[in-house]
């Protein structure tokens, strides 16, 4: 993500839009009031990813690898960050399942599956590394393995994972087994999944639509 570029995610009912950028400010806008900013949070590090995991709970990731949770739309929404997990690398992508109690978090080469317990604490359930068979690049002549996006598929037992240099993979979330699905000649910088979770649009040097079923 280039400096100054914002990431935006709309809440499911379309009323609120969350935006984050390298200015280190997380904002929530009201779509029914000409997208007026109704809440903001200043952080020490740029935000790099965000997702609504329910109508009232916003999860954001930072350049420092912090996974944080906020309640911006509740009355007198708190601006205090609640760090629910800390990774050693930046977080380029976060996705929540339909219930909101599980997250797919990309950090470096891995997709991390986090689950929420009954006491609302979060724990790491699984690390997924589709590229483990090729190992780490021995030198800078080979491109590094970087997961740029992970998305639940229809029944949420599988996910699609895009990599900056190594294509698109389909992963079984229970077993961790993966299979190569598609690979571009260019890097995959940004991607998004369709509402029915059957197609993935990836942005390389051109927009490519890939079927996942």
TrEMBL record:
InterPro entries: WD40/YVTN_repeat-like_dom_sf (IPR015943), WD40_repeat_dom_sf (IPR036322)
Protein name as annotated: Uncharacterized protein
Native species: Rhodocollybia butyracea
